[in-house]
Write a structure and sequence with these properties.
This protein is an alpha/beta fold and 208 residues long. It is built from six helices and nine strands, in the order E-H-E-H-E-H-E-H-E-H-E-E-H-E-E. The strands form two sheets. The chain has a seven-stranded mixed beta sheet with strand order 3-2-1-4-5-6-7, with helices on one face. Strands 8-9 form a two-stranded antiparallel sheet. Helix 1 packs across helix 6 and helix 5 crosses helix 6. The longest helix has 25 residues. The two termini are 19 Å apart. Its EC number is 2.1.2.2.
């Protein structure tokens, strides 16, 4: 059984999707062992507490720079014997040393179909604002491995979601969460924990 650490910075809706999937037996060979928040008082910690999962605050504001925070986070996750790290609305930057320490063991969910609307500055509602401004007809979500390039790691799963007439960034965000993020994130986590993902450069293969 692999230990999963979920990193959060806010309300934790994607964390809840993972908790619900685990309870439903949909995460094969994995369990959420710890939730790490980058700031105190976020609702994601309440979700962890309600599910009986250890919650830890490692506040970014307590550290002088990215390198110091990344080192502390790396040490914490190693102490917790973490096998997989899931970034679920984690808004804190880490350094390349951190991503190298957990190479192909960090996954992130992004609210767009990468390579569209990704990279620096594209997060949260900014993604959906950009999609609507561009007039796209289809958006969606992507689960990918994390490397030193922002939103540039190998893609694991993607799911498309239609953009509807009259959508606002908020309505589009909600639809993408419900129809894509909350489905493909637990699925990708289960595939990883079951040993069904193989990474070769930028290509991810899903084993039968």
């Amino acid at each position: 059984m692999l230990n999963i650490a979920v990193l959060v910075s806010g309300g934790g809706t994607n964390l809840q999707a993972l908790i619900d999937a685990e309870k439903a037996g949909k995460i094969e060979n994995g369990k959420i062992s710890v939730v790490v928040a980058s700031k105190p008082g976020v609702y994601a910690l309440e979700r962890a507490k309600n599910a009986g999962i250890e919650g830890v605050v490692l506040a970014r504001s307590d550290y002088e720079n990215v390198d110091a925070y990344s080192e502390a986070l790396e040490n914490l996750l190693k102490e917790k014997h973490t096998d997989l790290i899931v970034l679920a609305g984690f808004m804190t930057i880490t350094n390349e040393k951190f991503t190298k320490a957990f190479e192909n063991k960090i996954i992130n969910v992004h609210p767009a179909l990468i390579p569209s609307f990704c990279g620096k500055g594209y997060y949260g509602l900014h993604v959906h604002e950009a999609a609507l401004a561009r007039g796209v007809k289809v958006s969606g979500a992507t689960v990918h491995f994390v490397n030193e390039v922002c939103d540039g790691g190998p893609i694991i799963l993607q799911k498309a979601v239609p953009v509807e007439q009259g959508d606002t960034p908020e309505t589009l965000q909600r639809r993408i969460m419900e129809q894509a993020e909350w489905k493909i994130l637990p699925q990708a986590v289960s595939l990883f924990c079951a040993g069904k993902l193989s990474v070769n450069g930028s290509i991810v293969t899903i084993k039968e």
